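User: quick one, sequence for these tokens?
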């Protein structure tokens, strides 16, 4: 079973949750048999670029949703499984994900992707928006 860099991963997670930063994503990757921070950032494309066909990535994203009356942050947990990952490593993702979820605990929705075309920021935003409750912008339509 892999080990997780709890301090490093928690620092990345906390940076995304912090309202005083522009950081809106954190990624966690495998390094040998350990799960370590892969980076943090403000541009979804930078996160997406980490998600290659040869890797497994866990991601935590902040997405601003709402309408003219109310803006709010929603969080999502993403599991990326590259298309070239062998079956044994794919099988371990579900158990390894539990380690990451010990740190990444607060999110509205979880996604799993293996195709970069599906890893779309607008799709994620719309899915979170559906969970957001009242949408006062709908009155303007």
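Assistant:
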């Amino acid at each position: 079973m892999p080990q997780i860099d709890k301090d490093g991963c928690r620092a990345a997670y906390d940076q995304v949750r912090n309202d005083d930063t522009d950081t809106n994503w954190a990624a966690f990757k495998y390094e040998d048999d350990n799960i370590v921070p892969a980076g943090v950032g403000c541009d979804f494309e930078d996160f997406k670029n980490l998600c290659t066909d040869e890797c497994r990535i866990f991601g935590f994203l902040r997405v601003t949703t709402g309408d003219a009356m109310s803006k709010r942050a929603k969080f999502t947990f993403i599991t990326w499984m590259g298309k070239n990952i062998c079956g044994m490593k794919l099988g371990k993702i579900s158990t390894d994900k539990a380690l990451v979820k010990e740190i990444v605990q607060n999110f509205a929705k979880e996604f799993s992707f293996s195709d970069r075309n599906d890893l779309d920021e607008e799709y994620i935003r719309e899915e979170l928006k559906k969970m957001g409750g009242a949408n006062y912008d709908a009155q303007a339509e």
